[in-house]
Structure to design on (419 residues):
């Protein structure tokens, strides 16, 4: 049977992709970001998952507002990484397992999540920004991706609670697949940032830390937040943290942190957190949290 | 009759924040599409070759054309364009997101970066 071996939440700032492509891994302004992903990449290299299930958003690239679905499951053996105005990035296409994608799709629909399905469509920085920091790509990616896009752009958005429930349904779908696949769930976006209007540049690190603690220990509390709550506390575009809630729904009730990196350089609190299922070892968890808090500006 | 989305109750109290919902999107669909098309190289080339012709072909109104001519990033957002199509046009103008952020705040790039935690990040 397929099973979930862990989860990752990560920002998907497009500038991470630009810095990656330009080789800024050792630039003093960028090293704290790239170094923060190394323990996650090492964990993935050790655990060797077959599949990453991504909850991400399309930034009006492959999907446009004339037909912008709430939940879209991408089906395909191969997804090119989208041209978002600056040309194509030097990365191989993202790989897919059509049988697994189709199983998740049919399970979700039978479970009353009436998904939209896209086929062989390009994937933008919602996945492509963090993916090369997680997985190697030379000569090719080591596994496949299940891309699940969530509308976080055009209101009405799905509620935080609905995203959490989608994650729970994705877990049921994964655990009903007969093949022995090791799966890691990835939620993208956040943390605090606003990048439109005069309020651009808004951040709140105290809220980010509160969110991370609630997210781990009391996700039900976050399902009660409205979109306006997210916008007020974390900036307009932090509403994309509802995609973290989809990831959280797919994880076990108790989870623990293996690694956390929080780096607020300019406008987005760029964050990556690695989780495993179960309560874990509390002293280790607190030590990791303390290190992350001291690293926060 | 315009109804209130309960998920957005209270958001109007936040200054400098513009909700992109179905009403806004429907009103600004052609303008948003103009920027969205910049993911295609032929659209970029048409824009570089003749901005006015590209805007006319896209059916932009005079007001919309003036916002483009003025590179009025904040005005375009206030008009109802979604930032994530606007950033595609920024690539076409070889303008970075950080430069767009500064402009939306009414600041020079140097002024904006001085407010950041890592001012020399690029």
């Amino acid at each position: 049977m397929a099973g979930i071996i862990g989860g990752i939440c990560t920002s998907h700032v497009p500038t991470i992709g630009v810095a990656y492509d330009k080789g800024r891994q050792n630039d003093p302004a960028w090293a704290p970001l790239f170094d923060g992903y190394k323990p996650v990449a090492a964990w993935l290299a050790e655990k060797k998952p077959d599949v990453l299930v991504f909850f991400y958003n399309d930034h009006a690239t492959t999907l446009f507002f004339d037909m912008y679905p709430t939940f879209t499951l991408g089906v395909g053996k191969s997804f090119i990484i989208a041209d978002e105005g600056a040309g194509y990035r030097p990365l191989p296409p993202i790989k897919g397992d059509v049988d697994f994608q189709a199983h998740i799709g049919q399970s979700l629909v039978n479970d009353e999540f009436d998904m939209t399905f896209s086929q062989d469509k390009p994937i933008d920085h919602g996945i492509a920004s963090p993916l090369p920091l997680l997985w190697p790509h030379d000569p090719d990616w080591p596994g496949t991706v299940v891309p699940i896009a969530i509308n976080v752009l055009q209101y009405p958005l799905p509620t935080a609670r609905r995203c959490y429930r989608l994650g729970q349904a994705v877990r049921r779908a994964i655990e009903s697949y007969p093949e022995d696949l090791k799966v890691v769930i990835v939620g993208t976006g956040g943390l605090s940032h606003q990048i439109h209007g005069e309020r651009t540049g808004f951040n709140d690190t105290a809220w980010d830390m509160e969110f991370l603690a609630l997210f781990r220990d009391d996700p039900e509390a976050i399902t009660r937040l409205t979109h306006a709550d997210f916008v007020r506390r974390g900036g307009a575009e932090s509403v994309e943290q509802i995609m973290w809630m989809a990831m959280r729904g797919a994880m076990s009730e108790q989870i623990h942190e293996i690694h956390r990196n929080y780096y607020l350089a300019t406008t987005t609190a760029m964050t990556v957190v690695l989780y495993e299922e179960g309560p874990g070892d509390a002293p280790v968890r607190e030590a990791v949290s303390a290190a992350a808090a001291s690293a926060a500006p | 009759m315009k109804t209130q989305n309960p998920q957005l109750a209270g958001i109007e109290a936040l200054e400098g924040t513009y909700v992109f919902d179905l009403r806004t999107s429907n009103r600004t669909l052609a303008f948003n599409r103009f920027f969205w098309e910049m993911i295609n190289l032929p659209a970029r080339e048409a824009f570089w070759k003749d901005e006015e012709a590209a805007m006319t072909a896209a059916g932009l109104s005079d007001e919309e054309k003036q916002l483009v001519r003025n590179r009025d990033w904040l005005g375009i957002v206030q008009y109802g364009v979604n930032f994530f199509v606007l950033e595609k046009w920024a690539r076409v103008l070889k303008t970075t997101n950080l430069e767009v952020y500064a402009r939306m705040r009414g600041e020079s790039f140097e002024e904006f970066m001085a407010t950041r935690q890592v001012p020399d990040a690029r």
In short: The longest strand of chain A covers residues 255-264. Residues 286-297 of chain A have pLDDT under 50 and may be disordered. The radius of gyration of chain A is 18 Å.
